[in-house]
Amino acid sequence: MRNITFSLLLVGATLTSCAQMKEVKEFNEQEKQELSQRPANIVETAVGKLEIPAPFHSKSIQKVSKVVGWKEGEMPIAPEGFKVEIFADGFEHPRWTYVAPNKDVFVVEANTRNSANRVTILRDQDGDGIFEHRGAFKEGLNQPFGMLILGDYFYIANTDGLYRYNYKEGDLNLKSEGEKIVELPAGGYNNHWTRNLIANADGSKIYISVGSASNVGEYGMDKEVRRAGILEINPDGSGEQVYASGIRNPVGMDWNPVTGELWTAVNERDKLGNNLVPDYITSVKQGGWYGWPYSYYGQIKDPRWEDNPHNELVEKAIMPDVPVGPHTASLGFTFYNHDSFPVKYKNGAFVGQHGSWNRDPLSGYKVVFVPFVNGQPQPPEDFLTGFIANEETGEVHGRPVGITTLPDGSLLVNDDDSNVIWKISAE
């Protein structure tokens, strides 16, 4: 029954409202002003108290950054004791990176528009920083994102489906057309086209993150079936379950190395104000409901659904663990379980914040580190900065997104809009 619990609850609870309402509620300026006078909410997260301002406490704005790239000698800034260097460049939007057990590095080149639709393989067998091979591993894809090697298969999550290809370790390309084992709802609001992948420890299950089709359900909740959540499947694509739902746009996923919990980085909703709603990273409970689109941060109701508030779902909403700032586009996520960084980083999490398009001042455009102590999160801190070139003009050098680690313990950061992957290592 778990496969229908929240998926059908989400849809079934909204069929009546969809018949009666084509859109969520919109407010005029006077109504927004009245809502803005409501008191702030104070919520208790896993890292302490958080003040959530009233809806429309400030105007929602648009401030789209302009990527100017990195001049010779320019690079992001890491804490003292770390070295930043170019791992590889010359890509077309290197959005995500996956490292195979044999140390081959696979880079997805994909974008919202003018997508290269390619996976590139990088091979450095002797670890000297020079690739003995660099080439197209698979082309002709459809906005690919998540990758996974499991058994004798290489999995690629396109925006519209999960494909698996026959694969043996050391292959330099995928020759077959592959098999589409799961149909997925394509596209999505803004950049919600990404479909990430992760397997559990014994390889018996695969998890697929699927973002919402809308900002807050404005196209009708019938368009959100199997979206805004994480799906669980068997490796052959059978046995689909809704693992967790009410998660607006989950992207990066990883397993907490101490507790074994699945964690994800989530983009929250827009158009409630300059500082609403904070993005977050959180543990993901099986069968859990996280509120979208009816509430946020537990039981804070989204006023756009006040005519049909879905109180029964709001009451079930789980508080996310760690807020990481509003409109940061926190996408990349990985736990650090190596030993080459200082001990404080062991079992902590890195978050790649792609950066805002609707906040002034800009938010995100950095890599954040969240320390974990005995498997429990602590307040976030900046790790890799320097991506904003000029706050006033909105110019940025690049936009960090995918985060992964190499077998030697160094960190890779995909800077997709500047077509470079940065390597951060301890000196």
Which features does this protein show?
427 residues; mainly beta; Neuraminidase; five-stranded mixed beta sheet; four-stranded antiparallel beta sheet; 7% helix; 37% strand; disordered N terminus
Descriptive notes:
A hairpin with a 7-residue loop joins strand 15 and strand 16. The chain has 4 helices and 34 strands. The longest helix is centred in the N-terminal third of the chain and has 11 residues, at 2-12. The strands form 10 sheets. A 5-stranded mixed β-sheet has the order 13-14-15-16-20. Strands 4-34-33-32 form a 4-stranded antiparallel β-sheet, with no helix packed on it. A 4-stranded antiparallel β-sheet has the order 5-6-7-8, with no helix packed on it. With 427 residues, it is mainly beta. It has helices at residues 2-12, 15-20, 29-36, 311-314, and strands at residues 41-45, 48-52, 66-67, 82-89, 94-99, 105-109, 118-123, 133-138, 147-150, 153-158, 161-166, 179-183, 195-199, 206-210, 229-233, 241-245, 250-255, 262-266, 278-284, 288-289, 295-296, 300-301, 322-326, 330-335, 349-353, 366-370, 372-373, 376-377, 381-384, 388-390, 395-396, 400-405, 411-415, 420-426. The model is unreliable at 1-21 (pLDDT under 50). It starts with a helix and ends with a strand.
